[in-house]
Amino acid sequence: MIDCHNHLQDEAFADHLEEIVDELRNLGVCHWGVNGTSEEDWERVAILADRYPEVTPFFGLHPWKCEQRSADWFSKLRDYLEQFPDAGLGEVGLDKWIRNVDFGEQDLVFRKQMEVALELKRPLLVHCLQAWGIMKERIEEYDCGGSVLLHSYGGPLEMVSGFEKLGACFSISGYFFKPEKSKKLKPFLEVAPDRLLVETDAPDMSLPESLRRFRVETLESGNEVNHPANISAVYQAVAELRGIAVNDLQIQAEANWNEWLARGRTC
């Protein structure tokens, strides 16, 4: 199995990391796309990539964090990308849902990260909320659709075909299987088989109770911590949604992961 998007570097996992790694390996989760979100966690992503061969690192400035960036954030980002030639850009993107964040600054930061991704030939793992029209414009503008993965896609069903024509892939998380989020599943009935990937977004995007096979202690805030090993339950749920065998989904998702990474490194 592939978990194309998680945050294994998150401090919520610090006291449980070796146990989590053992559980992932016992399940056969062979690649973990570990995504940074800010200058504060890039080094932790780098340490995981050095320590665990299953980690594919992604370094990026999340749209929620762009206003906290330092003056030399971009040079730091380039340093990590050059240190890890197989790394991608992530988690990057655009977000109009979050309040009190300057969207113009988000767009500026996103553009710079798209530019370096194209310059260094790296895949782009993209976050987007309530900014789908602008996201499509940016992908068209930079002609980078083949290198883009729209993580935990929550956009309109009607936009799936347009993004596919641009070359983009889509990933689905277990969060959408919560009853109150079930409308978000409809686009994933239309995503082409060769464009679909599966993720946990752990420790975020917690699963419905029926799918939680692994647990981590709840945060002090009371928020549920999504255990990365729950990826196995996400695969089972997605296979049932699409009416295919889970083993077939795993084989297809691994092929899609390899193809997406390869496109990102040649665009």
Q: Give the helix/strand class.
A: alpha/beta
CATH topology: TIM Barrel
* Main sheet attributes: strand count, strand direction, barrel closure: 8 strands, parallel
Mean pLDDT: 96
Could you name the CATH homologous superfamily?
Answer: Metal-dependent hydrolases
Annotation field: number of helices: 8
The top level CATH class name: Alpha Beta
Low-confidence stretches: none
- Taken from the alpha-carbon principal axes, the silhouette is globular
Helices and strands, in N-to-C order? EHEHEHEHEHEHEEHH
Percentage of residues in strands: 15-25%
N-end to C-end Cα span = 26 Å
Arrangement of strands in the largest sheet:
1-2-3-4-5-6-7-8
Keywords:
single chain, 267 residues, alpha/beta, TIM Barrel, eight-stranded parallel beta sheet, 15% strand, globular
